[in-house]
Amino acid sequence: MKENCLFCKIIEGKIPSEKVYEDASVVAFKDIHPKAPIHILIVPRTHLDSLASLNEQNIDILKPIFLAAHKIAKKEGVLEKGFRTVFNCNQEGGQAVYHLHLHLLAGKQLGGAMGG
Ligand code: AMP
Ligand code: ZN
């Protein structure tokens, strides 16, 4: 729990969210401004600012995030059709909320551009 962190507050239930999945390691909820019919944020319960803070000691944080992405994609019926996962990192990566989160986008043909 980091002071004044939006996603820590959502995890603690202090700010409402539309939860779609949770387990001992992660919470996943609908993005408030969806960029695709399915747009879910997968957030580790442990606060880490961004991928820029990743190191040998905390890299295990990623495993439950991707396992959750797989489970959610299956539950949403897009595992076979396809989906996209994105981590935005720091300013030029377009990160707005500094609590690590994986975007899961699906439900339409996603564009080929990865930014630009
Ligand atoms: P990023 O730009 O990668 O940091 O993504 C932050 C995402 O959080 C954006 O897609 C926002 O739409 C989303 N977001 C911001 N506030 C909330 C909220 N209260 N509940 C759900 N999603 C949110
Ligand atoms: Zn946080």
Give a quick precis of the structure.
This protein is α+β, with helices and mostly antiparallel strands and about 120 residues long. About 15% of the residues lie in helices and about 20% in strands. It has two helices and five strands, in the order αβββαββ.
Please, could you describe this protein's structure?
The structure is a single chain. The protein is α+β, with helices and mostly antiparallel strands. The protein has a single domain, classed as HIT-like (HIT family, subunit A, 2-Layer Sandwich). The chain has two helices and five strands; from the N terminus they run αβββαββ. It has helices spanning 6-11, 62-75; strands at residues 19-22, 26-30, 38-44, 83-86, 102-106. A five-stranded antiparallel β-sheet has the order 1-2-3-5-4, covered by helices on one side. A hairpin with a 3-residue loop joins β1 and β2 (26-30). 20% of the residues are buried. Bound molecules: adenosine monophosphate and zinc ion.
What topology does this entry show?
Elements: H1 6-11, E1 19-22, E2 26-30, E3 38-44, H2 62-75, E4 83-86, E5 102-106
Antiparallel strand pairs: 1-2, 2-3, 3-5, 4-5
Bound molecules: adenosine monophosphate (AMP) and zinc ion.
Strand runs, count: 5
Largest sheet, spatial ordering of strands: 1-2-3-5-4
Overall shape: it is globular
Total domains: 1
What portion of residues belong to β-strands? 15-25%
